[in-house]
Amino acid sequence: MALQLISFACTLANVPNGTAIASALGTPIVPGGEYFSSQDVTVLPIFDPSVASAGTGYFMSKGKHILGSYAAAAIWVTRTGTVVSDGYEYPLQQAQLFAPSLLRLGPASIEPLATKFGESDPNMSWLLDGPIALQQNELLQAFMTLQLAPLVVGTDTATVDATKSNLCVTVVLADEILTPPLGEVFWTRINMSASLRAFQWSGGDARFPGNIPAGRYALVGLTCVADTTGIAMRAIFPAQPSRPGVISVADRLSKTNEVFYSSKLGIYGIFEPFAPPSFEFLATKDANDVRMSVAMAVMKIS
Known about the structure:
By secondary structure, the protein is mainly β. The protein has 2 domains: about 5-175, no CATH class; about 185-300, Jelly Rolls, CATH 2.60.120. The protein has one helix at about 20-25; strands at about 5-10, 40-45, 55, 55-60, 65-80, 85-90, 90-100, 110, 125, 130-135, 140-145, 155-175, 185-195, 200-205, 215-225, 230-235, 245, 270, 280-285, 285-300. Strands 1, 5, 6, 9, 10 and 12 form a 6-stranded antiparallel beta sheet that branches. Strands 2, 3, 4, 7, 8 and 11 form a 6-stranded antiparallel beta sheet that branches. Strands 13-20-15-18 form a 4-stranded antiparallel beta sheet, with no helix packed on it.
């Protein structure tokens, strides 16, 4: 069993032709009408010690299955004219995954799309009833289509700041789903802090509960609260190369997507209390001493 969460994440300024794309997004097709649709925006992979990447994608070192995917985009737009505003808009129209073997199926669109980062019950495109198989050593890529909301009147203008505009596609992969045995499941929560770096996996200072009895435990569910800068969190288990994870939410009142905590993904990893998992986080911007909370659904297996 090997669950793996990977993320394509970058600013619009970092994608190929990012400056030109930003300019096109703010250019109306006709005065007073809709803006151009910027198709096939390449979302770049980030450095990941658990998965090899090259150029615009991740290499599948062994045959994997796509279990689910997530896509979100926050574009910084300054509008002048009838409507004056300066802040994030969410113009994601479409997101797709591409790998050569997917040509046998057609476009692998991500549906439904997320509204924004950190939202409650984030939209995920789950394929648990029919995971898509990827071939060994092929390149997995991610693309987006962006389009701003239409102009109000012909004299209005929109300017996109590519350096503040954030793009992300996250994919849940697996060799197989290892169904946990029947047993009692309990929750334990870990509060921690971390210094986050934009579009990098950053480790947190976790203090694992010291009152868990000796034995072997299976992690069967996860939630993560990491404010509005957070994208995702991953668990790192001793002697397990793959790194499973969860899409994060902004606060304790927000709901994690149910699949991540309902045992539907099977066993994330196995550990003993003297060698617990550690955690790493992905965020859209640099931030120091960010307070985060991870809740784990745990089952004692021996």
